[in-house]
Design a protein that fits this description.
With 282 residues, the protein is of the alpha/beta class. It contains 10 helices and 11 strands. Bound molecules: nicotinamide-adenine-dinucleotide (NAD).
């Protein structure tokens, strides 16, 4: 079994990104800039934001948090975003999800200029993905593909089973795997006999949000496992995969934490850099 060490790979890629940004600064270019918008004070969001800002700073991206009260109106938030859209010193705007129920998530995400849509959640950028055009991809799917590439895992011809069909993970990763010529099956909460599908899978992407959901009896020997889940279980972070038991059958497997999570943050920073290059005509 080979552990897919997302933390190690993300550090390496962050260092490569830092080198590129250092060179730009030496050439008197402006610093790439990211704005993170948070509404309310969700503890999980606080910790994700902390990691995004810390890693941005490490690679030389100027990252700031704009934190608003839980009761901000939709109109107020849309006004703030439209001002950020107009500010040429800002390369990326990230609205940390989830938003409080009274805010229309789709409307807020689509109010971001798609050329500042660092998370790749704008309808236009999601659409480009389905047209197989170069676009800003959602960070988690992009991070997963980067991790597979770094370990030289070829997905062409593999039976890939994606469990979960969310707009931010399951659905886009399915399309990226399809573009790499995997044979993709998308499973979800209404799938009948999930085990039938997972048992035949060469590659499983688990993006469900249920602790230790995928068990050893559900997979075949030699399977490649990418565990996207982040769940809190008895004060510990665990994935959607019963790691300790499934790892005995897997050829490759990501741990939780230190697997997909840091790769997601790295992909986000790489997205920001891509947007910066577009804005600076580089
Ligand atoms: P989501 O709730 O939007 O989607 C969950 C999906 O799981 C749904 O499509 C649903 O159909 C499917 N599902 C639920 N129960 C199922 C069942 N019994 N059998 C089969 N499918 C079932 O969640 P999401 O936003 O896609 O996130 C999934 C997990 O990934 C969460 O734990 C989340 O915290 C984590 N996550 C991690 C990262 C990261 O960077 N590592 C990024 C995003 C999300």
């Amino acid at each position: 079994m080979i552990l897919l060490d997302g933390l190690k790979i993300s550090k390496k890629r962050n260092e490569e990104l830092k080198d590129k940004i250092d060179k730009l600064i030496l050439a008197n270019k402006r610093q790439p800039k990211l704005i993170i918008i948070q509404v309310g004070n969700n503890p999980a969001s606080n910790s994700y934001i902390k990691s995004k800002i810390k890693n941005s700073t490490l690679v030389g991206i100027d990252a700031s948090l704009l934190k608003y009260e839980e009761d901000i109106t939709e109109e107020e938030l849309l006004n703030k975003i439209s001002l950020l859209n107009l500010d040429h010193s800002i390369d990326g705007i990230l609205v940390q999800l989830p938003l409080p129920k009274h805010l229309n998530e789709r409307k807020i995400l689509d109010s971001i200029n798609y050329l500042k849509d660092v998370d790749g959640f704008h309808t236009y950028n999601s659409g480009l993905l389905f047209q197989k055009q170069r676009a800003i991809h959602a960070a988690t799917p992009e991070g997963i593909i980067n991790l597979l590439n770094e370990y030289k895992i070829k997905v062409e011809g593999l039976n890939a089973v994606v469990i979960g069909r969310s707009n931010i993970v399951g659905f886009p990763i399915s399309k990226l795997l399809l573009d790499l010529n995997a044979t993709v099956t998308i499973c979800h909460s209404k799938t009948k006999n999930l085990k039938f599908h997972t048992k035949h899978a060469d590659l499983i992407i688990a993006a469900i949000g249920k602790p230790l959901f995928l068990t050893k009896d559900m997979v075949k020997k030699g399977v490649i496992i990418i565990d996207v889940g982040i769940n809190r279980l008895e004060e510990k972070l665990v994935g959607d995969v019963d790691f300790e038991n499934v790892k005995t059958k897997a050829s490759y497997i990501t741990p939780v934490p230190k697997g997909v999570g840091p790769m997601t943050v790295n992909a986000l920073l790489e997205n920001l850099y891509k947007l910066y290059l577009i804005h600076e005509n580089l």
